[in-house]
Amino acid sequence: MKFRNALVAATILALPIAAKAQPIGGWYIAGGAGANLMLNENVKINSVSGAGGSGHFKSTVGPAFDLSVGYGLGNGLRAEIEGLYTYNSFNGVSGGATGGGQEQKFGGFANVLYDFVGLSPYVQPYVGAGVGYLWAKEASLHIDTPAFASSAANDTEGSFAYQGIIGAAIPISGAPGLALTVDYRFVGMTGDRNYSATLNGGAARYKLDNNYNNIFMVGFRYAFGAPAPAPVAPAPAAVPASPVSRSYLVFFDWDKADLTTRARQIVAEAAANSTKVQYTRLEVNGYTDTSGTPQYNQGLSIRRAQSVAAELVKDGVPKSAISIQGFGETHLLVPTGPGVREPQNRRVEIIIK
């Protein structure tokens, strides 16, 4: 299928400009355009005289558009409200009859999606499902056979709808928060819809039931407040090692900034040893693993450094001699991908200089 091949090509072409994939934490907007391959739609014609018939309309490929607003929890889960519009023409009827018309669908969905964090550094697959309500507006519906001629008035009927979604997001390098999205969705409408019609000049109605759609979309998504990529640090200039520099590592439980018993022992050891050397300052640097959003991790690394600094002061180190920094999920002790809970990366380093 040409359109499906185009989606694959768009994904491949976007990879050279892709940035590191990160879970969304906060508000975002998204929109896309694509094609709707609507399956044949069943129709039954009934008149007050008892005449009628049945068959199905054959549809052509038509355009589809969507727009959504959502919120990400920072752990891969997202919830959003989406508006959807599709248009298809009918170019024939089964059973040798002639006929045609047009159908427009429009409405909204409440969707829940999950981004698979850590599967790939540059492409983030996602799946989702949604429920909502769609209106189907029929125009110029008509079916003609040797036995009868019928037509339906322009009319709009609605019903509950559902959808399943599978796709991938490719963050764009140089534009924090912006990502190219490619997805497929299956959309269905429930129940029957009845439209007023005429049959051989008399009153009748068209009853349309199944309405199934295969929609392929390409679009963009923008997450508000996404952090800028960390600049590549230049290679540090070589400096002679200080003979009195000494460092201590204090580790933390996941998503915690309070000190364990073992952590307090290490801080006490660092405080005691600082009195045995002539130091100019104590650097207290906090770090996290890659689970959680970069913004949250930055704050957590600072809180961990503050906990260690407070314990150093309690153990006799002058507060004025301590400098505190938080580095978030940068400078990993154990290199990992995004979204990984690595105990050795959840640490504070005390450096005595």
Summarize the structure.
The chain has 353 residues and is mainly beta. Helix content is 14%, strand content 51%.
Please explain how this structure is put together.
The model is unreliable at 10-15 (pLDDT under 50). The protein is built from three helices and 17 strands. Helix 2 (261-274) packs across helix 3. Strand 2 (41-47) and strand 3 (52-59) form a beta hairpin. The protein is mainly beta. The chain has helices at 2-14, 261-274, 294-314; strands spanning 25-38, 41-47, 52-59, 62-73, 77-93, 98-115, 124-144, 149-152, 155-171, 178-189, 193-199, 202-208, 211-223, 246-251, 282-286, 322-326, 347-352. It has two domains: 2-223, Porin, CATH 2.40.160; 246-352, 2-Layer Sandwich (60s Ribosomal Protein L30, Chain: A), CATH 3.30.1330. 14% of the residues lie in helices and 51% in strands.
Give the termini separation.
65 Å
Number of domains: 2
- Main beta sheet strand tally, sense and closure: 13 strands, antiparallel
Structural class: mainly beta
Beta strand count: 17
CATH topology of the largest domain: Porin
Judging by the overall fold, what is the CATH architecture of the largest domain? Beta Barrel
The ordered H/E elements are HEEEEEEEEEEEEEEHEHEE
Indicate the low-confidence ranges by residue numbers: 10-15
How large, in whole angstroms, is the Cα Rg? 31 Å
Mean pLDDT figure: 84
